[in-house]
Amino acid sequence: MPPAPKTRERIVQASLQLFNAQGERSVTTNHIAAHLQISPGNLYYHFRNKQAIIAELFAEYESRVDVFLRRPERALTVDDKTFYLEAALAAMWHYRFLHRDLEHLLETDAALAERYRQFAQRCLTHVQAIYAGFVEAGILRMTPAQVEALSLNAWIMMTSWVRFLCTVRGASAELDEDLMRRGIYQVLALEGGYLTPAAQGALDRLYDRLFVPLGRVLGQE
């Protein structure tokens, strides 16, 4: 059997679970300690406050995105588009509280806000390089200015999707992977006018796989 996770790791895992389920603002360090059946003092031995736990979770998220959001040193294919979208979906889902509570988190932690700004700038640089790679591969037909605009629009869509769901479904509504998948579909839809005929068939199949009806998104089904 694998060794049991250490207390610090258990605190991080439990915090992520509670933040995702209840929202970061609804969870205190006492809630986390009670969930783990440890004393608050034991928790504070590892993390001085809740912001320190959030910083640790953001570091995990940042590292995960940095690993996959890279343009490979070869020609890109439609399969790469699937990879990027699915990797983004998985990261969004696993750390969904960060997207749902992002504005509040950055307002209350100046260090995290600065770190997030650097992360966002880095991501936008990589996204532009990836889209440029799809242009070079003949999958998209775009000018450099259109690549820049699409990169920014895709970033805005990805980072605001969870908050949009909370506004239309209610802040306490449960989110699931279907709802997150529609967010990825929306990003893909931004690219529709730039697809080359050679890539259309493969992208249509990806559209079909990611589509979730709007009524489901709005909580009408």
From TrEMBL:
Which Gene Ontology terms cover its molecular function? DNA-binding transcription factor activity; transcription cis-regulatory region binding
DNA-binding feature ranges: 28-47
What InterPro entries does the annotation carry?
Answer: Homeodomain-like_sf, HTH-type_TetR-like_transc_reg, HTH_TetR, TetR
Q: What protein name applies here?
A: Transcriptional regulator, TetR family
- Pfam families named in the record: TetR, TetR_N
Q: Which UniProt keywords apply?
A: DNA-binding
State the species of origin.
Answer: Pseudomonas kuykendallii
Give residue ranges for domain HTH tetR-type. Answer: 5-65
